[in-house]
Amino acid sequence: MKIDELDGRLLTLLAAEPRIGVLEASRRLAVARGTVQARLDRLQTNGVIRGFGPDVDPAALGYPVTAFATLEISQGQGADVRAHLASVPEVLELHTITGHGDMLCRLVARSNADLQRVIDRVVGFDGIVRASTAIVMENPVPLRIVPLVQQAASQRE
Amino acid sequence: MKIDELDGRLLTLLAAEPRIGVLEASRRLAVARGTVQARLDRLQTNGVIRGFGPDVDPAALGYPVTAFATLEISQGQGADVRAHLASVPEVLELHTITGHGDMLCRLVARSNADLQRVIDRVVGFDGIVRASTAIVMENPVPLRIVPLVQQAASQRE
DNA sequence: GGTGAAAGGTCATTAAG
DNA sequence: CTTAATGACCTTTCACC
Fold first, then answer.
1. By the CB < 8 Å criterion, does B86 face chain A?
2. What predicted TM-score, i.e. pTM, was given to this entire model?
3. Distance from CA of B14 to the nearest CA of A (A)
4. How confident is the model at residue A157 (pLDDT cuts 50, 70, 90)?
5. Measured between CA atoms, how close is B115 to chain A, in angstroms?
6. How far is residue A132's CA from residue B150's CA, in Å, rounded to a whole number?
């Protein structure tokens, strides 16, 4: 979907102050309220904005340790492995990838010791041949979208 | 922070229907309006809920390709490399990790061909010794938090 | 619990592609 | 000619005290 400069400013504003209302947003952007509403509707209809789900911090829930695990899967076991991983609450995200290793998942745990339990649960399943884990130490760039939005907005394509 | 069963139900409800109001939420949870407001305040004060930022889909913005790159960094160049990566809009996330490779970043691109441009920009920097990239094919488990929340809520600790 | 304030919808008019 | 923006009005709903 093509995003114009106003969409970009709207998304940036929403990212900075999520609790802002449509009316207040229209004031900040110096456009009519209906315009902001129409843009929001369009962005949501086109899937650019998936939703406004609460941004929950696993660390604040008692899971301060994050890790990425690369898994190697036996041929034909993909579907079973996916279902298994989806059933583990500490698996926050799962991707199938190219290259060595067939899946990449993001894990959280209560401590480094607890991570061992999580990994055991994750890899203790037929079809997972091998796993290599990298523990996250710092997160210099937390998941962000604003720079990309601004680049997309400036590229009238 | 300790989460009880009501917090868990509230977070689950918010994740399912983010645009819900405090009043409507209190009806669904069958508790008083003030209770929901107090819980929300507490969850936000304690950092469990970071915010309600818009959930933007990079694919809908024209960046349907996702990849993870593992970077090996020269000693003492960490800070410079971080600043460089933070300046690239297509870098959505950056972690420093243990093990072989020193950083892991999530990238998006307009196409597989465009990914080459992004990778060139990412690794074309003094201090980055080596990079290995895995392209994401499928995403069987998109970033999620509800299962973890429910586990945390059921573990009265 | 009451009240001021938004959200959300519709409309006619106007501007711009 | 088609699409979008605007300001006006309305009703319902919510947030805050």
1. yes
2. 0.93
3. 7
4. low
5. 14
6. 27
Q: What is the pLDDT of residues A111-128, one digit of tens each?
A: 999 999 999 999 999 999
Residue A156: is its pLDDT beyond 90? no
Neighboring chain A residues of B90 at a CB cutoff of 8 Å: 148, 151
Q: Is the Cα torsion angle B91, A85, A110, A52 positive or negative in sign?
A: positive
CATH numbers and ranges of domains, chain A = 5-54 (1.10.10.10), 58-135 (3.30.70.920)
Q: Cβ–Cβ contacts within 10 Å for residue A10, how many?
A: 26
3-state secondary structure of B39: helix
The closest of B6, B27, B25 to B16, measured between CA atoms, is B25
Q: What pLDDT is stored for residue A99 in this prediction?
A: 79
**Spatial CB neighbours of A155, under 8 Å, sequence gap ≥ 6:** none
Report the Cα B7 to chain-centroid distance in Å.
21
With beta carbons less than 8 A apart as the criterion, state whether B105 and A143 touch: no
